[in-house]
Design brief:
Helices cover 29% and strands 20% of the residues. It is α+β, with helices and mostly antiparallel strands and 277 residues long. The protein folds into 2 domains: 91 residues, Alpha-Beta Plaits (2-Layer Sandwich), CATH 3.30.70.100; 158 residues, no CATH class. The protein binds zinc ion (2 copies).
């Protein structure tokens, strides 16, 4: 199952309200997004035969089912009905360029992970690394996933800046790389809340751009507890370090990846035990 493109129609049971009709659809789409039922926020709205119509990306084919609606989505629908507005949706098809979603029956752990290119949910399964729709971590009444969506947007903004290498590159890279940045603090707070809700460990990933040498890279310790955290093999093509106490992940600096692989094994610290079942 991958992301899907879905058409949403907003229809009026009477004459369209006098104010800007798109405003009602924007409220509905915003509530769906904050509940993890819609990915991204680019939804061009057009008028078609008297209806307001847009196209959105959803995490799965059934993401707009009423059983996934949170408090705010249900409230939006009820308020719209009072104003003579109804919403309907129809599947257009699979999005061809998106990652395969997690299909694990019971993932052992999760990681908060996104990039400047990613539209999928910022929660990934640690077993298969597939994206997991946020609404699977049912929000309690009167809450939504605002903090997680905000972290995702902030992280992607930093990732954009470090990729573009022109504006605030160093500051943005630092936010993504160190444990005591505002971005890392916000991300780890999201992990703590989601972990509590899911009853499963949630890991936080610290990006590592540049290092001085492969040998020094191999000596890195967990930045929170100073314990060993080197993995015996790269996990999901991304992670070389993992601390199960602090629930942190990181990678060998991207500029040293090739030379790190050539480092003699006896120069590397003993790897920590493989992933617990
Ligand atoms: Zn999975
Ligand atoms: Zn640690």
């Amino acid at each position: 199952m991958t992301m899907h493109a879905v058409r949403i129609d907003m229809r009026f049971t009477g004459p369209p309200p006098g104010d800007v009709p798109a405003a009602h659809l924007n409220l509905f789409l915003g509530a769906l997004r904050k509940n993890g039922q819609v990915c991204g926020r680019e939804w061009p709205i057009v008028m078609d035969s008297g209806a307001c119509v847009t196209t959105v990306l959803t995490p799965a084919a059934d993401s707009l089912d009423a059983r996934y609606h949170g408090t705010y989505v249900r409230r939006c629908i009820a308020d719209a009905q009072l104003a003579g507005i109804t919403f309907a949706w129809s599947l257009i098809g699979e999005e061809c360029d998106s990652a395969e979603a997690c299909g694990c029956a019971d993932p052992g752990a999760y990681v908060l992970f996104t990039t400047y290119l990613t539209l999928e949910s910022p929660v990934r399964c640690m077993d298969c690394f597939g994206p997991v729709p946020l609404y699977r971590f049912t929000a309690p009444p009167d809450t939504e996933f605002h903090d997680v969506i905000s972290w995702q947007s902030d992280y992607q903004s930093c990732d954009h800046l470090q990729m573009n290498c022109t504006v605030l590159e160093k500051a943005a890279t630092r936010q993504m790389s160190v444990i005591d940045s505002a971005l890392s603090a916000a991300g780890r707070a999201c992990c703590a809340v989601l972990s509590e809700r899911a009853g499963k460990p949630f890991y936080y990933y610290l990006y590592r751009d540049k290092g001085r040498s492969a040998a020094l890279e191999a000596q890195r310790r967990c930045p929170a507890c100073d314990g060993p955290w080197q993995l015996p093999a790269r996990l999901h093509g991304c992670f070389d370090f993992r601390c199960d106490n602090c629930r942190l992940l990181s990678n060998v600096a991207f500029n040293l990846r090739a030379s790190y692989m050539m480092t003699a094994p006896d120069q590397l610290p003993a790897p920590i035990a493989p992933c617990p079942p």
